[in-house]
Design goal:
By secondary structure, the protein is an alpha/beta fold. It has a single domain, classed as Spore Coat Polysaccharide Biosynthesis Protein SpsA, Chain A, CATH 3.90.550. The protein has a five-stranded mixed beta sheet. The protein has a three-stranded antiparallel beta sheet with strand order 5-11-12. Helix 4 links the parallel strand 1 and strand 2. Helix 4 runs parallel beside helix 5, helix 7 packs parallel to helix 14 and helix 9 packs across helix 12. The termini are far apart. The structure holds guanosine-5'-diphosphate (GDP) and magnesium ion. Magnesium ion (MG) binds next to loops. Keywords: Glycosyltransferase, Transferase. GO terms for molecular function: alpha-1,2-mannosyltransferase activity. Pfam families: Glyco_transf_15.
Length: 433
Protein backbone atom coordinates (compact mmCIF):
# COMPACT_ATOMS: atom_id res chain seq x y z
CA UNK A 1 0.00 0.00 0.00
CA UNK A 2 2.77 2.40 1.06
CA UNK A 3 4.64 1.69 -2.21
CA UNK A 4 1.69 2.47 -4.48
CA UNK A 5 0.92 5.66 -2.48
CA UNK A 6 4.48 6.76 -3.20
CA UNK A 7 4.03 6.02 -6.89
CA UNK A 8 0.79 8.01 -6.95
CA UNK A 9 2.56 10.88 -5.17
CA UNK A 10 5.42 10.77 -7.72
CA UNK A 11 2.94 10.74 -10.57
CA UNK A 12 1.07 13.74 -9.10
CA UNK A 13 4.29 15.73 -8.62
CA UNK A 14 5.49 14.82 -12.13
CA UNK A 15 2.22 15.88 -13.77
CA UNK A 16 2.28 19.11 -11.74
CA UNK A 17 5.81 19.89 -12.96
CA UNK A 18 4.84 19.11 -16.59
CA UNK A 19 1.71 21.32 -16.29
CA UNK A 20 3.75 24.13 -14.74
CA UNK A 21 6.37 23.91 -17.51
CA UNK A 22 3.61 23.95 -20.17
CA UNK A 23 1.90 26.95 -18.55
CA UNK A 24 5.10 28.97 -18.17
CA UNK A 25 6.25 28.29 -21.71
CA UNK A 26 2.84 29.27 -23.16
CA UNK A 27 2.53 32.47 -21.18
CA UNK A 28 5.96 33.81 -21.98
CA UNK A 29 6.14 36.53 -24.63
CA UNK A 30 7.88 36.17 -27.94
CA UNK A 31 11.35 37.39 -27.28
CA UNK A 32 12.78 40.11 -29.45
CA UNK A 33 16.14 38.92 -30.73
CA UNK A 34 19.09 41.02 -29.66
CA UNK A 35 20.54 43.11 -32.41
CA UNK A 36 23.80 41.72 -33.81
CA UNK A 37 25.72 44.85 -32.85
CA UNK A 38 24.69 44.44 -29.22
CA UNK A 39 25.48 40.72 -29.28
CA UNK A 40 28.95 41.48 -30.59
CA UNK A 41 29.39 44.19 -27.97
CA UNK A 42 29.73 46.96 -30.56
CA UNK A 43 28.41 50.40 -29.82
CA UNK A 44 27.69 51.32 -33.41
CA UNK A 45 24.74 50.33 -35.51
CA UNK A 46 21.44 51.66 -36.53
CA UNK A 47 18.55 50.31 -34.58
CA UNK A 48 16.53 48.17 -36.92
CA UNK A 49 13.74 46.75 -34.88
CA UNK A 50 11.06 44.87 -36.74
CA UNK A 51 7.61 45.11 -35.26
CA UNK A 52 4.41 43.24 -35.85
CA UNK A 53 3.04 45.86 -38.21
CA UNK A 54 6.12 47.34 -39.65
CA UNK A 55 8.70 45.18 -41.35
CA UNK A 56 12.34 46.08 -41.00
CA UNK A 57 12.50 49.04 -43.30
CA UNK A 58 14.20 52.28 -43.84
CA UNK A 59 15.63 54.59 -46.37
CA UNK A 60 18.69 53.60 -48.27
CA UNK A 61 21.06 56.29 -47.19
CA UNK A 62 22.77 57.78 -50.22
CA UNK A 63 25.25 59.67 -48.21
CA UNK A 64 28.91 60.12 -47.59
CA UNK A 65 28.20 61.21 -44.09
CA UNK A 66 28.91 59.16 -41.03
CA UNK A 67 25.84 57.03 -41.38
CA UNK A 68 24.87 54.27 -39.07
CA UNK A 69 22.25 52.87 -41.35
CA UNK A 70 21.97 49.14 -41.23
CA UNK A 71 23.46 48.00 -44.50
CA UNK A 72 21.09 45.05 -44.82
CA UNK A 73 17.87 46.97 -45.14
CA UNK A 74 17.28 48.87 -48.30
CA UNK A 75 13.52 48.51 -48.37
CA UNK A 76 11.48 51.71 -48.20
CA UNK A 77 9.00 52.12 -45.35
CA UNK A 78 5.47 51.02 -46.21
CA UNK A 79 4.16 53.73 -48.48
CA UNK A 80 1.00 55.64 -47.76
CA UNK A 81 -1.82 53.72 -49.39
CA UNK A 82 -5.34 55.04 -49.66
CA UNK A 83 -6.73 51.56 -49.03
CA UNK A 84 -4.74 51.14 -45.84
CA UNK A 85 -5.77 54.62 -44.75
CA UNK A 86 -9.44 53.91 -45.51
CA UNK A 87 -9.32 50.70 -43.48
CA UNK A 88 -7.78 52.49 -40.52
CA UNK A 89 -9.17 56.01 -40.29
CA UNK A 90 -7.31 58.22 -37.85
CA UNK A 91 -9.00 58.47 -34.48
CA UNK A 92 -8.78 62.20 -33.82
CA UNK A 93 -11.30 62.37 -30.99
CA UNK A 94 -12.22 60.12 -28.06
CA UNK A 95 -14.84 57.49 -28.77
CA UNK A 96 -13.73 56.79 -32.32
CA UNK A 97 -12.57 53.23 -33.02
CA UNK A 98 -8.88 52.74 -32.15
CA UNK A 99 -8.83 55.76 -29.83
CA UNK A 100 -8.50 53.79 -26.63
CA UNK A 101 -5.78 51.41 -27.68
CA UNK A 102 -2.50 52.92 -26.59
CA UNK A 103 -0.75 49.61 -26.15
CA UNK A 104 -0.52 47.87 -29.50
CA UNK A 105 1.57 48.93 -32.43
CA UNK A 106 -0.73 51.37 -34.23
CA UNK A 107 -2.42 49.83 -37.26
CA UNK A 108 -2.69 51.69 -40.54
CA UNK A 109 -0.23 53.32 -42.85
CA UNK A 110 3.04 55.05 -42.01
CA UNK A 111 4.17 58.26 -43.64
CA UNK A 112 7.58 58.68 -45.18
CA UNK A 113 8.71 60.65 -42.17
CA UNK A 114 11.42 60.97 -39.57
CA UNK A 115 12.30 62.69 -36.35
CA UNK A 116 15.33 64.93 -36.70
CA UNK A 117 17.69 66.27 -34.06
CA UNK A 118 20.70 68.51 -34.37
CA UNK A 119 22.95 67.86 -31.41
CA UNK A 120 26.44 67.80 -29.98
CA UNK A 121 27.91 64.73 -28.34
CA UNK A 122 27.67 66.56 -25.03
CA UNK A 123 23.86 66.82 -25.50
CA UNK A 124 23.47 63.05 -25.15
CA UNK A 125 21.63 62.91 -21.81
CA UNK A 126 19.47 65.91 -22.58
CA UNK A 127 18.38 64.39 -25.89
CA UNK A 128 17.89 61.05 -24.15
CA UNK A 129 15.25 62.72 -21.95
CA UNK A 130 13.47 64.10 -25.00
CA UNK A 131 13.55 60.81 -26.89
CA UNK A 132 12.19 58.87 -23.92
CA UNK A 133 9.18 61.19 -23.75
CA UNK A 134 8.54 61.15 -27.49
CA UNK A 135 8.70 57.37 -27.43
CA UNK A 136 6.46 56.99 -24.36
CA UNK A 137 3.81 59.40 -25.58
CA UNK A 138 3.85 58.48 -29.28
CA UNK A 139 6.59 56.71 -31.16
CA UNK A 140 6.64 53.35 -29.36
CA UNK A 141 3.42 52.61 -31.27
CA UNK A 142 4.61 54.05 -34.59
CA UNK A 143 8.35 53.31 -34.73
CA UNK A 144 9.36 56.20 -36.93
CA UNK A 145 13.05 56.69 -37.72
CA UNK A 146 15.27 59.31 -36.15
CA UNK A 147 18.01 61.25 -37.92
CA UNK A 148 20.76 62.85 -35.81
CA UNK A 149 22.94 65.57 -37.31
CA UNK A 150 26.13 67.07 -35.94
CA UNK A 151 28.90 69.36 -37.16
CA UNK A 152 31.36 66.83 -35.66
CA UNK A 153 31.34 63.01 -35.80
CA UNK A 154 28.97 61.45 -33.27
CA UNK A 155 30.81 59.39 -30.69
CA UNK A 156 30.09 55.81 -29.67
CA UNK A 157 28.28 56.79 -26.46
CA UNK A 158 25.90 59.11 -28.28
CA UNK A 159 25.06 56.43 -30.81
CA UNK A 160 24.67 53.69 -28.23
CA UNK A 161 22.38 55.69 -25.94
CA UNK A 162 20.17 57.14 -28.65
CA UNK A 163 19.82 53.98 -30.72
CA UNK A 164 18.80 52.06 -27.61
CA UNK A 165 15.99 54.55 -26.92
CA UNK A 166 14.52 55.03 -30.40
CA UNK A 167 12.02 52.36 -31.49
CA UNK A 168 12.59 53.06 -35.19
CA UNK A 169 15.87 53.11 -37.04
CA UNK A 170 18.51 55.68 -36.19
CA UNK A 171 20.81 57.45 -38.64
CA UNK A 172 23.78 59.64 -37.85
CA UNK A 173 25.05 62.29 -40.24
CA UNK A 174 28.00 64.66 -40.16
CA UNK A 175 27.26 68.07 -41.60
CA UNK A 176 29.55 69.15 -44.45
CA UNK A 177 31.81 72.11 -43.79
CA UNK A 178 30.03 74.37 -46.35
CA UNK A 179 26.83 74.12 -44.30
CA UNK A 180 28.50 75.06 -41.01
CA UNK A 181 30.91 77.88 -41.83
CA UNK A 182 31.07 81.49 -43.00
CA UNK A 183 30.18 81.96 -46.66
CA UNK A 184 32.98 83.70 -48.63
CA UNK A 185 31.07 86.96 -48.98
CA UNK A 186 30.96 87.56 -45.21
CA UNK A 187 33.27 90.32 -43.97
CA UNK A 188 34.92 88.68 -40.95
CA UNK A 189 35.89 91.92 -39.28
CA UNK A 190 32.38 93.29 -39.49
CA UNK A 191 30.95 90.04 -38.14
CA UNK A 192 33.37 90.02 -35.24
CA UNK A 193 32.56 93.61 -34.35
CA UNK A 194 28.87 92.69 -34.21
CA UNK A 195 29.60 89.83 -31.83
CA UNK A 196 31.57 92.12 -29.54
CA UNK A 197 28.78 94.71 -29.53
CA UNK A 198 26.15 92.10 -28.80
CA UNK A 199 28.25 90.72 -25.96
CA UNK A 200 28.39 94.20 -24.42
CA UNK A 201 24.63 94.48 -24.76
CA UNK A 202 24.26 91.04 -23.14
CA UNK A 203 22.16 89.72 -26.01
CA UNK A 204 21.59 86.02 -25.56
CA UNK A 205 24.05 84.00 -27.72
CA UNK A 206 25.10 87.44 -29.10
CA UNK A 207 28.80 86.62 -29.12
CA UNK A 208 28.49 83.01 -30.24
CA UNK A 209 29.79 81.89 -33.64
CA UNK A 210 28.49 78.32 -33.29
CA UNK A 211 24.97 79.50 -32.47
CA UNK A 212 24.99 81.51 -35.71
CA UNK A 213 26.13 78.47 -37.70
CA UNK A 214 23.36 76.49 -36.01
CA UNK A 215 20.68 79.06 -36.95
CA UNK A 216 21.89 79.25 -40.56
CA UNK A 217 22.03 75.46 -40.78
CA UNK A 218 18.49 75.04 -39.42
CA UNK A 219 17.29 77.79 -41.75
CA UNK A 220 18.82 76.54 -44.96
CA UNK A 221 20.42 73.13 -44.84
CA UNK A 222 18.99 70.49 -42.50
CA UNK A 223 16.31 69.46 -44.99
CA UNK A 224 18.80 68.84 -47.78
CA UNK A 225 21.27 66.67 -45.89
CA UNK A 226 21.68 63.33 -47.72
CA UNK A 227 20.01 61.46 -44.86
CA UNK A 228 16.96 63.73 -44.99
CA UNK A 229 16.49 63.38 -48.75
CA UNK A 230 14.80 60.02 -48.18
CA UNK A 231 11.87 61.54 -46.29
CA UNK A 232 8.85 63.74 -46.98
CA UNK A 233 8.02 64.91 -43.44
CA UNK A 234 10.10 65.75 -40.36
CA UNK A 235 9.47 66.35 -36.69
CA UNK A 236 12.17 68.39 -35.00
CA UNK A 237 13.13 67.48 -31.46
CA UNK A 238 15.60 69.36 -29.28
CA UNK A 239 17.39 68.28 -26.10
CA UNK A 240 15.52 68.63 -22.78
CA UNK A 241 12.04 69.15 -24.16
CA UNK A 242 8.97 67.59 -22.59
CA UNK A 243 5.80 66.07 -24.04
CA UNK A 244 2.92 66.29 -21.59
CA UNK A 245 0.07 64.38 -23.25
CA UNK A 246 -0.61 61.09 -24.99
CA UNK A 247 -0.63 61.42 -28.73
CA UNK A 248 -3.37 59.13 -29.99
CA UNK A 249 -2.98 59.71 -33.70
CA UNK A 250 -0.11 60.16 -36.13
CA UNK A 251 0.75 63.88 -36.54
CA UNK A 252 2.65 63.08 -39.75
CA UNK A 253 -0.48 61.54 -41.18
CA UNK A 254 -2.56 64.52 -40.14
CA UNK A 255 -0.12 66.74 -42.04
CA UNK A 256 -0.46 64.63 -45.15
CA UNK A 257 -4.22 64.02 -45.06
CA UNK A 258 -5.05 67.63 -44.20
CA UNK A 259 -2.45 68.99 -46.66
CA UNK A 260 -0.52 70.87 -43.98
CA UNK A 261 3.05 71.95 -44.64
CA UNK A 262 4.14 73.57 -41.39
CA UNK A 263 2.99 73.32 -37.79
CA UNK A 264 3.66 74.74 -34.35
CA UNK A 265 2.66 74.56 -30.69
CA UNK A 266 4.15 77.83 -29.37
CA UNK A 267 4.51 81.27 -30.90
CA UNK A 268 5.90 84.53 -29.52
CA UNK A 269 7.61 87.83 -30.31
CA UNK A 270 11.25 87.71 -31.41
CA UNK A 271 13.94 89.64 -29.58
CA UNK A 272 14.18 92.70 -31.86
CA UNK A 273 17.91 93.26 -31.42
CA UNK A 274 18.69 89.94 -33.12
CA UNK A 275 16.84 90.76 -36.36
CA UNK A 276 16.84 94.55 -36.99
CA UNK A 277 17.05 94.23 -40.80
CA UNK A 278 15.39 90.84 -41.38
CA UNK A 279 12.19 92.47 -42.57
CA UNK A 280 14.06 94.76 -44.99
CA UNK A 281 15.63 91.66 -46.51
CA UNK A 282 12.22 90.02 -46.63
CA UNK A 283 10.72 92.98 -48.45
CA UNK A 284 13.56 92.87 -50.97
CA UNK A 285 12.80 89.17 -51.53
CA UNK A 286 9.10 89.96 -52.03
CA UNK A 287 10.03 92.53 -54.72
CA UNK A 288 12.50 90.22 -56.43
CA UNK A 289 10.35 87.08 -56.32
CA UNK A 290 6.70 88.12 -56.43
CA UNK A 291 5.89 84.78 -58.04
CA UNK A 292 6.69 83.00 -54.74
CA UNK A 293 4.24 84.97 -52.62
CA UNK A 294 1.07 82.95 -52.19
CA UNK A 295 -2.48 84.29 -52.22
CA UNK A 296 -4.36 83.85 -48.97
CA UNK A 297 -1.13 83.65 -47.00
CA UNK A 298 -0.65 84.43 -43.31
CA UNK A 299 0.92 87.88 -43.76
CA UNK A 300 -1.55 89.08 -41.12
CA UNK A 301 0.29 86.93 -38.57
CA UNK A 302 3.60 88.68 -39.36
CA UNK A 303 2.57 92.26 -39.98
CA UNK A 304 -0.08 94.62 -38.65
CA UNK A 305 0.21 97.04 -41.57
CA UNK A 306 -0.08 94.86 -44.64
CA UNK A 307 3.62 94.06 -44.86
CA UNK A 308 5.20 97.45 -44.25
CA UNK A 309 6.69 96.45 -40.87
CA UNK A 310 7.25 93.18 -39.03
CA UNK A 311 5.46 92.69 -35.72
CA UNK A 312 8.12 90.09 -34.70
CA UNK A 313 5.66 87.22 -34.33
CA UNK A 314 7.14 83.83 -35.04
CA UNK A 315 6.45 80.16 -34.52
CA UNK A 316 8.89 78.63 -32.08
CA UNK A 317 10.93 76.29 -34.25
CA UNK A 318 12.38 74.01 -31.57
CA UNK A 319 9.11 72.08 -32.14
CA UNK A 320 8.12 71.64 -35.77
CA UNK A 321 6.36 69.00 -37.80
CA UNK A 322 6.73 69.99 -41.42
CA UNK A 323 6.88 69.13 -45.07
CA UNK A 324 10.46 68.65 -46.29
CA UNK A 325 9.49 69.03 -49.94
CA UNK A 326 8.19 72.50 -49.18
CA UNK A 327 11.54 73.45 -47.60
CA UNK A 328 13.31 71.96 -50.62
CA UNK A 329 11.07 73.92 -53.02
CA UNK A 330 12.41 76.72 -55.23
CA UNK A 331 10.30 79.23 -53.32
CA UNK A 332 11.84 78.38 -49.94
CA UNK A 333 15.42 77.96 -51.16
CA UNK A 334 15.23 81.26 -53.10
CA UNK A 335 14.08 82.88 -49.86
CA UNK A 336 16.90 81.35 -47.83
CA UNK A 337 19.55 82.18 -50.41
CA UNK A 338 18.36 85.74 -50.67
CA UNK A 339 18.62 86.14 -46.88
CA UNK A 340 21.98 84.40 -46.79
CA UNK A 341 23.37 86.84 -49.36
CA UNK A 342 22.34 89.74 -47.14
CA UNK A 343 24.51 88.28 -44.38
CA UNK A 344 22.21 88.80 -41.39
CA UNK A 345 22.97 85.37 -39.95
CA UNK A 346 26.40 86.85 -39.14
CA UNK A 347 25.98 90.66 -39.19
CA UNK A 348 23.02 90.29 -36.84
CA UNK A 349 21.88 87.04 -35.20
CA UNK A 350 18.93 85.90 -37.25
CA UNK A 351 17.28 82.85 -35.75
CA UNK A 352 15.85 79.97 -37.75
CA UNK A 353 12.49 80.50 -36.00
CA UNK A 354 11.70 83.89 -37.58
CA UNK A 355 13.17 82.69 -40.89
CA UNK A 356 10.93 79.59 -41.02
CA UNK A 357 7.98 81.60 -39.77
CA UNK A 358 8.28 84.40 -42.32
CA UNK A 359 8.62 81.77 -45.04
CA UNK A 360 5.54 79.93 -43.78
CA UNK A 361 3.64 83.21 -43.55
CA UNK A 362 4.40 84.30 -47.12
CA UNK A 363 5.01 81.14 -49.14
CA UNK A 364 2.17 79.01 -47.78
CA UNK A 365 -1.56 79.44 -47.68
CA UNK A 366 -2.66 80.12 -44.13
CA UNK A 367 -4.68 76.89 -44.08
CA UNK A 368 -1.43 74.97 -44.72
CA UNK A 369 -0.14 75.94 -41.25
CA UNK A 370 -1.38 73.80 -38.38
CA UNK A 371 -1.57 74.50 -34.66
CA UNK A 372 -1.38 71.31 -32.57
CA UNK A 373 -3.43 72.20 -29.49
CA UNK A 374 -3.37 68.57 -28.39
CA UNK A 375 0.44 68.18 -28.24
CA UNK A 376 1.47 69.35 -24.75
CA UNK A 377 5.04 70.64 -24.94
CA UNK A 378 7.77 72.38 -22.97
CA UNK A 379 11.05 73.94 -24.05
CA UNK A 380 12.62 76.22 -21.48
CA UNK A 381 11.05 78.63 -20.56
CA UNK A 382 7.63 78.18 -22.25
CA UNK A 383 4.86 75.62 -21.94
CA UNK A 384 2.08 74.73 -24.28
CA UNK A 385 -0.50 72.91 -22.14
CA UNK A 386 -3.65 72.13 -24.17
CA UNK A 387 -6.52 74.51 -23.51
CA UNK A 388 -9.63 72.73 -22.22
CA UNK A 389 -9.87 70.51 -19.15
CA UNK A 390 -11.67 67.78 -21.07
CA UNK A 391 -8.90 67.51 -23.64
CA UNK A 392 -6.21 67.45 -20.94
CA UNK A 393 -7.95 64.65 -19.05
CA UNK A 394 -8.65 62.60 -22.15
CA UNK A 395 -5.03 62.89 -23.23
CA UNK A 396 -3.70 62.20 -19.70
CA UNK A 397 -1.66 65.41 -19.75
CA UNK A 398 0.64 66.09 -16.80
CA UNK A 399 1.16 69.83 -17.39
CA UNK A 400 -0.18 72.57 -15.13
CA UNK A 401 -2.76 74.51 -17.19
CA UNK A 402 -1.70 77.68 -15.36
CA UNK A 403 1.59 77.51 -17.24
CA UNK A 404 -0.04 77.50 -20.67
CA UNK A 405 1.58 80.32 -22.63
CA UNK A 406 -0.88 80.43 -25.56
CA UNK A 407 -3.18 83.23 -24.43
CA UNK A 408 -0.73 85.33 -22.46
CA UNK A 409 0.35 88.76 -23.68
CA UNK A 410 3.70 87.72 -25.11
CA UNK A 411 2.28 84.89 -27.23
CA UNK A 412 1.22 85.34 -30.87
CA UNK A 413 -1.11 82.35 -30.91
CA UNK A 414 -4.22 84.48 -30.39
CA UNK A 415 -3.26 86.43 -33.48
CA UNK A 416 -2.87 83.18 -35.44
CA UNK A 417 -6.42 82.21 -34.53
CA UNK A 418 -7.73 85.62 -35.58
CA UNK A 419 -5.85 85.63 -38.89
CA UNK A 420 -7.00 82.13 -39.80
CA UNK A 421 -10.56 82.74 -38.57
CA UNK A 422 -10.44 79.74 -36.24
CA UNK A 423 -12.45 79.56 -33.04
CA UNK A 424 -10.27 79.63 -29.95
CA UNK A 425 -10.57 76.52 -27.79
CA UNK A 426 -13.06 76.62 -24.94
CA UNK A 427 -11.58 78.07 -21.76
CA UNK A 428 -8.98 80.32 -23.40
CA UNK A 429 -10.39 83.51 -21.78
CA UNK A 430 -9.47 82.25 -18.32
CA UNK A 431 -5.82 81.78 -19.19
CA UNK A 432 -4.90 85.30 -20.28
CA UNK A 433 -2.58 86.00 -17.37
N1 LIG B 1 26.02 69.84 -33.43
C1 LIG B 1 25.73 71.00 -32.82
N2 LIG B 1 24.48 71.25 -32.40
C2 LIG B 1 24.22 72.42 -31.81
C3 LIG B 1 25.22 73.40 -31.58
N3 LIG B 1 24.65 74.45 -30.94
C4 LIG B 1 23.35 74.14 -30.77
N4 LIG B 1 23.07 72.90 -31.29
C5 LIG B 1 21.77 72.23 -31.33
O1 LIG B 1 20.88 73.12 -31.94
C6 LIG B 1 19.64 73.13 -31.27
C7 LIG B 1 19.36 74.50 -30.67
O2 LIG B 1 20.32 74.81 -29.71
P1 LIG B 1 19.93 75.23 -28.23
O3 LIG B 1 21.20 75.30 -27.47
O4 LIG B 1 18.86 74.32 -27.73
O5 LIG B 1 19.39 76.70 -28.50
P2 LIG B 1 18.08 77.42 -27.92
O6 LIG B 1 16.96 76.41 -27.88
O7 LIG B 1 17.83 78.52 -28.90
O8 LIG B 1 18.46 77.90 -26.57
C8 LIG B 1 19.72 72.03 -30.25
O9 LIG B 1 19.18 70.86 -30.85
C9 LIG B 1 21.20 71.89 -29.98
O10 LIG B 1 21.52 70.59 -29.58
C10 LIG B 1 26.56 73.11 -32.04
O11 LIG B 1 27.50 73.91 -31.91
N5 LIG B 1 26.76 71.90 -32.65
MG1 LIG C 1 16.86 74.45 -27.32
Amino acid sequence: MAGSARIVRYLLIASFVVALFFFVSRSSYDGVPLRPDILSGGAQGAANKPTAQQPPAGPAANTNTNTNTNANSNTKPPAFSNKDAAEHPMALTPGEPEWEDLVSIAPGPRMNATFVTLARNSDVWEIARSIRQVEDRFNRRYNYDWVFLNDKPFDATFKKVTSSLVSGKTHYGEIPHEHWSFPDHIDQEKAQKVREDMKQKKIIYGDSVSYRHMCRFESGFFFRQPLMMNYDYYWRVEPSVELFCDIHYDPFRLMKEQKKKYSFVLSLYEYVETIPTLWDSTKKFIKNFPEHIVQDNAMGFLSDDGGETYNHCHFWSNFEVGDLNWLRSKAYTDFFESLDQDGGFFYERWGDAPVHSIAAGLLLRKDEIHFFNDIGYYHVPFTHCPTGEKVRTQLRCHCDPKNNFDWKGYSCTSRFFEVTGMDKPEGWENQQD
